């Protein structure tokens, strides 16, 4: 029996890569895709998939907005470059059944889809810890402090910042986000300008002080 999958991500190149990976699985069928919230909600309701692979950071509310807009039926597995606790908790509270990051392999992603389709919750051990701590009340996710420089970053710039802080090269970031090296350089330049840092080393220290990693 085939698992019907719907892809939601605002980057067409990334969707193409996921579609190609899942096409190798004999028990999976990609029945639709969308790059924006409104398009995703309409497409999911029409296609009636078993599993929705859902990006977290998109314009107009992102994955949380999609979860709030679709009818009951499909299970949703968040697929994001971010492994920040606040992102994980937000989409799980909105109704996602699991959360994996875009560093996952094609085989691991396919296994995650099968598991959520079968009723399991799917997380890496670290992300599962965030969820357990949040719902037991032992370590609630705090409201982030006001930070005008950080708030000025777009979701994509924040993704690039997190990977820079982890020591990724521009090429590694490009491969992880399915964008060109030139685009990464542009985002990195914007991040430096907005955070008023002079170079990458200073930016990494700035990010670590804010626990962005």
UniProtKB/TrEMBL annotation:
Protein name as it appears in the record: LuxR family two component transcriptional regulator
Pfam families associated with the record: GerE, Response_reg
SUPFAM superfamilies linked: C-terminal effector domain of the bipartite response regulators, CheY-like
Residue ranges annotated for the Response regulatory domain, each copy included: 4-117
Biological process terms in GO annotation: phosphorelay signal transduction system; regulation of DNA-templated transcription
Entry's Gene Ontology molecular function annotations: DNA binding
Domain HTH luxR-type, first and last residues per copy: 146-211
Keywords: DNA-binding, Phosphoprotein, Transcription, Transcription regulation
InterPro entries: CheY-like_superfamily, NreC/VraR/RcsB-like_REC, Sig_transdc_resp-reg_C-effctor, Sig_transdc_resp-reg_receiver, Tscrpt_reg_LuxR_C, WalR-like
Membrane among keywords: no
Modified residues (4-aspartylphosphate): 55
Organism this protein belongs to: Nocardia alba
CDD domains xrefs: LuxR_C_like, REC_NarL-like
């Amino acid at each position: 029996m085939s698992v019907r999958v719907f892809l939601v991500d605002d980057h067409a190149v990334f969707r193409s890569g996921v579609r190609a990976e899942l096409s190798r699985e004999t028990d999976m069928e990609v029945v639709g895709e969308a790059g924006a919230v409104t398009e995703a909600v309409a497409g999911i309701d029409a296609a009636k998939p078993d599993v929705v692979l859902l990006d977290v950071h998109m314009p107009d509310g992102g994955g949380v907005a999609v979860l709030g807009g679709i009818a009951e039926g499909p299970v949703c597995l968040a697929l994001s470059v971010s492994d920040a606790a606040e992102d994980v908790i937000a989409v799980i509270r909105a109704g996602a059944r699991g959360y994996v990051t875009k560093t996952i392999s094609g085989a691991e992603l396919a296994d995650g889809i099968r598991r959520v389709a079968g009723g399991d919750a799917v997380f890496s051990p670290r992300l599962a810890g965030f969820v357990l701590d949040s719902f037991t009340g032992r370590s609630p996710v705090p409201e982030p402090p006001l930070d005008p420089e950080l708030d000025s970053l777009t979701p994509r710039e924040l993704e690039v910042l997190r990977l820079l802080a982890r020591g990724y090269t521009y090429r590694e970031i490009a491969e992880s986000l399915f964008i060109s090296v030139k685009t990464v350089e542009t985002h990195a330049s914007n991040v430096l300008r907005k955070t008023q840092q002079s170079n990458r080393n200073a930016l990494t220290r700035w990010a670590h002080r804010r626990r962005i990693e």
